[in-house]
Amino acid sequence: MTFRNLTNAEETILKRSFNNWGIFEIFKTLKILIRTLVLDAVISDQKHTLTLGYSNGTDFTEPEKTIKRTEEVFVHSNIKYGDTLLNKIHPVIVGLKIGTIKNKRFSPGLNFAEFVVKHNKNMDYPHVIINTKAESLIVFGRDIMGSSILSYLKDIKENQQVIILNPNKEVIGLGKSRYSGSLIIQPNVITIDTTQDIGTYYLKTENRLSKSIDKNKDHSL
Amino acid sequence: MDDILDCPVLLTGNEHSRFLSKRFGYKEWMISRFLNFIPYPEKMLEYIHDSKNLHYYIRVNTLKTNPQELKRRLDEKGYHLNETILKEVFEIKNPGFMGIQNKVDGIRIDHQNNDDNNDNKVAVTAQRDSDLQSSKDNDTGSKQPSIGSTIEYLKGYYYIQDLSSCIAVEELEIHDRSDLVVLDMAAAPGGKTTHIAQKLNNRGAIFACELNSNRLASLLFNLSRCFVQNTIVLNIKAEEIDQLGLHFDRVLLDAPCTCEGIIMKDTSRKKSRNLVDLGTCSNRQKKLIMSGFDVLKPNGLLIYCTCSFAPEENEMIIQYLLNNHKDAKLEPLNYGMNGLTRFSNYQFDENMVFTKRFYPHIHSTNGFFIAKIRKISN
User: Fold this and answer.
1) What is the per-residue pLDDT across B77-111, written as a single tens digit (0 to 9) for each?
2) Count of alpha carbons within 13 Å of B260, Cβ hemisphere only?
3) Cystine design at B91: which of A46, B15, B82, B242 (Cβ 3.0–4.6 Å)?
């Protein structure tokens, strides 16, 4: 479970994303580490396949370029330990996971959304604010009906990632818009698909039934 | 002395211990021991026997909110919060249905809390109790959602944790210093780790060890929920921490134990443990405390704690450390009753009074033991 520093390409991807969400200025204040998660690859012994795991120096039969990977992005608060030590002690986690990089795109997680809400006071990021009644359902995975939305960023586009806020303007989830602009408040229609929510852990770990409504494997952390 | 410290002490029972054992459903060897070193043992057994005496505490996560704001919000939701000796810890008088069952979209979700000292057992026990005592629950909030299922909980604004556990971290003497490196030797589910993180204000570094892979998930969840950024989680045997070549300013050893102190929350422990278990725990605790002390920097602090009453897991472990490390010095603590200076035929270091014990019937907490040890600098 090797952690490493950002490559130049990854830094560019993250800077762009931080900028898009209106928090570019905090990028330089964060210490960021990357851990590579192999999604699916055949190990060189030809008998085993690594699925959703960490390579830890494993040799694969496939060429490097064809191995499906995702890069997990962690922030930490200035932990003064170099790569050498971190790789020697094989940590499970260093700091706080904020999202993943896959196919040269950054997919924010809930902790990234927390940074956005904390630091972008203008609220000019894609978001919807939902009512209290819907809040208790959405935190356990429900999608959002248009009539539950109290307010939203006016220029939300179709299929855009949005931060879901409760009336106190606190992050309770992340979602994807099915419609653009004012169409997202049309009544009796699901207009936002909830992709991550703060209650998912319970559904995943405390209740086996959760599998039926677990929409995204990368939910919990 | 070390030989003596090797074995659990079996004390002879009598008619009274047999009577209490039968009345309260304990193994007799436990009762005969309790009668020897617990103050007002009958009162404690009575107290533990009555589930109305259960106390619930929450610790405000100051990385995300502040005590006043959280109190206001939970007050609005109908929870009654009382202040405690620690400003960031509240007692909840009506924690709701701790084994809450919500219905969302036709799916039943059974919530349990992931807090310290097997407090997740609280949920199960409390659920059973409230089933049996629905009439009593009318005034303690049977319709109230569980304190472990609020939005504020999911947001990481607080952690459900016993006051005694919070005191252990309080005694680590962390005063928002950015350069402290802290070792948490048995971290899952993360109650004390997240508490240390907020004490450090997310600065410095915490190395959190957890050997049990099954318990890692709850630790990682709680670190994420509480927005902790300064922790390195290690899936290793804490006894082997010295092999990593690291040294720490603070070490917290909340040692795996027989958990006699949480019988009130997990009544199965009245009968599920035997003297062999006690001996096994005691031996492991000795190894853990030696490793923890070895990796402590000069002038560093080690807090040793258990949720057990047994001297074999508490004072005897400390005595074992003192016997083997002349640079280990006990320091006084601020809360609790003095540790034992003798048990059965054995006499401990006179400074053992600096260690502290917590009893449910006296302190309204779990049964708990805390010792504070400084590594004297040469």
Assistant:
1) 999 999 999 999 999 999 886 543 333 333 333 33
2) 28
3) B82
pLDDT in tens, A60-113: 566 666 667 789 999 998 667 777 777 788 899 999 999 999 999 999 999 999
- Specify the 3-state DSSP secondary structure of A34: strand
DSSP string, B157-189: SEEE--HHHHHHHHTT---S-TT-EEEESS-TT
CA distances from B6 to B115, B275, B278 (A): 31, 12, 11
Residue at B25: amino acid letter:
G
In chain A, what residues touch B203 (CB-CB under 8 Å)? 77-78
Decide if A54 touches B, using CB distance below 8 A. Answer: no
Q: Give the residue on B whose Cα is nearest the Cα of A115.
A: B227
For B326-339, what is the mean pLDDT? 97
If we measure between CA atoms, which residue out of A162, A97, A116 comes closest to residue A23? A116
Listed residue (B254, B374, B241) closest to B313, CA to CA: B254
Peptide bond into B189 cis (omega under 30): yes
Q: What percent of chain B has pLDDT over 90?
A: 75
Q: Regarding predicted confidence, which is higher, B138 or B41?
A: B41
Report the distance separating Cα A70 and Cα B23, nearest Å: 60
Per the CB < 8 Å rule, is B154 touching A139? Answer: yes
Q: Are B58 and B52 in contact (CB under 8 A)?
A: no
CB-hemisphere CA count at 13 Å for B280? 8
Residue type at position A193? D
Does B305 qualify as catalytic in the annotation? no
Q: Which of B77, B214, B231 to mutate to test the interface with A (most CBs of A within 10 A)?
A: B231
When CB atoms are compared, the residue of B230, B233, B235 closest to A77 is: B230
Q: Is B221's CB within 8 Å of A137's CB?
A: no
Complex ipTM: 0.85
Q: Which two tokens stand for residue B66?
A: 């502040």
Contact B234 A91 (CB under 8 A): yes
Look at B234 and A166 and tell me if their CB atoms are within 8 Å.
Answer: no
Dump pLDDT digits (tens) for B65-74: 999 999 999 9
